[in-house]
Design goal:
The relative contact order is 0.22. The chain has three helices and nine strands; from the N terminus they run ββαβαββαββββ. The protein is of the alpha/beta class. The protein has one domain: Rossmann fold, CATH 3.40.50.2020. Strands 4-3-5-6-7 form a five-stranded parallel sheet. It has a four-stranded antiparallel sheet with strand order 1-2-9-8. Helix content is 21%, strand content 29%. The structure holds guanosine-5'-monophosphate (5GP). The site of guanosine-5'-monophosphate has 19 residues, from strand 5, helix 3 and strand 8. The site of guanosine-5'-monophosphate (5GP) has 19 residues, from strand 5, helix 3 and strand 8.
Length: 180
């Protein structure tokens, strides 16, 4: 199955059923983790909104939820190398365990920047849950603890993830054709 957005073609990579299995597995691990107190979940907008909505419905632990709009991608297919929006974080995080929710960890710059920002504000701990992980482009120092699936270093859309604001609504995940 294929979708076309503008002049780009994307082919089916991960079905909605497979995504649901991965989200279940992540939720189970989060439920089994020993949290010193209810974690504050931080959904990184916009790409993680669907992952977050599905994940929290499977969580059985007490938690609270915040949304933070960060971006390292403008409208491009590669990271700009700079994370914007860290300052828009206004909730008190002091003495809280934090669980960052990311749709996809690519270079790891986004989670690394947010992790450092939070640690400076006196959080108890920072964990990361991501649906997808690109080991080929990861440059961070700490791997995400709760990870759905590793994928090749190609651009994907669907299930919340966009190309120039299109494709977020797709229930499945698609990969750019002729990537590389
Ligand atoms: P990182 O900082 O790890 O390089 O990038 C993380 C962010 O970049 C993700 O939250 C996501 O918004 C965006 N991103 C990374 N890879 C992809 C991709 O393949 N497709 C889309 N749509 N966004 C991506």
């Amino acid at each position: 199955m294929e979708v076309e957005i503008g002049e780009k073609k994307f082919r089916l990579m991960i079905t909605a059923d497979e995504i649901a299995l991965r989200v279940n597995e992540i939720a189970q691990k989060i439920n089994q983790q020993e949290w010193p107190e209810p974690p504050l979940l931080i959904c990184i907008l916009k790409g993680s909104f669907m992952f977050t909505a599905d994940l929290v419905r499977r969580l059985q632990i007490p938690h609270s939820l915040e949304f933070l709009q960060l971006s390292s991608y403008a409208n491009n297919l590669t990271s700009s190398g700079e994370v914007k929006g860290l300052d828009s974080f206004s909730v008190s995080v002091q003495n809280r365990p934090i669980l960052i929710l990311e749709d996809i960890v690519d270079t790891g710059l986004t989670i690394e920047s947010l992790r450092n920002h939070l640690l400076h504000q006196g959080v108890v701990s920072v964990h990361v849950a991501c649906l997808l992980f690109k080991p080929g482009s990861f440059k961070g120092s700490i791997l995400p603890e709760f990870c759905g699936q590793s994928i090749p270093d190609n651009f994907v859309i669907g299930y919340g993830m966009d190309v120039a604001e299109q494709g977020r609504n797709l229930p499945d995940i698609y990969v750019l054709e002729n990537a590389n």
